Amino acid sequence: MSDASTQSLDTAQLMEQILYEVKRVVVGQDRFLERVVVAMLAQGHLLVEGVPGLAKTLTVKTLAETIQGQFKRIQFTPDLVPADLVGTRIYNQKTGDFATALGPVFTNLLLADEINRAPAKVQSALLEVMQERQVTIAGETHRVPKPFLVMATQNPIETEGTYPLPEAQVDRFMMKVLVDYPTDEEEFVIVTRVTGPAVQVAPVATVEQLAALQKECRRIYVDPSLVQYAVKLVSATRKPEAHGLKELARFITFGASPRATINLTEGARALAMLRGRSYALPEDMSDLVPDVLRHRVALSYEALSEGITADTLVGKIMARIPAPPKPLEHEKLAA
């Protein structure tokens, strides 16, 4: 076995241990948990949409405990100001000097709960630190710790007192994940665990190991044909008629940005790594396409009036643009 294969196997085992510890606490939500780990490996951020009580906070908090990282939660409210997030300068009367008090964004895993409840100024402050990985307070730059993952949640059932995130800002999130209710069997297990003895999570990795995993993730091989597949998918959201999807043009106001192509490639790398491979396959990318594109496709009024969702449009684009064959698949067919 080659060194690369052995390293991939060790990495997969470590990620499996992390997931096992989290699943001792969190019941179900396997797809959501997988997306959180993918975002963590690919150094991206998550926007999560789901009703309250679906273990979003518990998932991130438990994950932070398994990697021995810092976890902080910010409840977004209409009276929040940017200083409540990034920090501010405080005057010390005894010394006569100003001291910098860093805000809660200085952590490894940050949960921004109900991000659409805060005004645009506060949302911009968070999205800036997500992109730049640093904060400037009174002309002094402070970098956030590594690794740094933001998971922002939105409540889809309430619109009163909310401030919708602008499309340009939403684009900074790597994926938008929809979290649904658990099945009856899962809910039975949830009630049993919550009402039973508390489960103690064992730390299985360190933030240093996670940083090493993120570097290793960048070395996962992505075939040029897969990158071309990502380019075609994203291009089809901008110019549907160029890909034989003229009927979709009236439903799309704006398509996805180049960030979507980058996130598809990085996400495919992370998912391949999570699945124990040193190379990405077409299914690694196609599994992530809806999550990467759904918040980047701006729907027209015509689409909204006809009840057409971004997921519907992305599904039609994927049906039209075929994924490339797997590596060496042509040789198998020839044989």
UniProtKB/TrEMBL annotation:
Residues 45-175 form the ATPase AAA-3 domain. InterPro entries: ATPase_AAA-3, CbbQ/NirQ/NorQ/GpvN, ChlI/MoxR_AAA_lid, P-loop_NTPase. Pfam families: AAA_3 (PF07726), AAA_lid_2 (PF17863). Residues 252-314 form the ChlI/MoxR AAA lid domain. Signal peptide: none annotated. This is MoxR-like ATPase. It comes from Pseudorhodoferax aquiterrae. The gene is moxR.
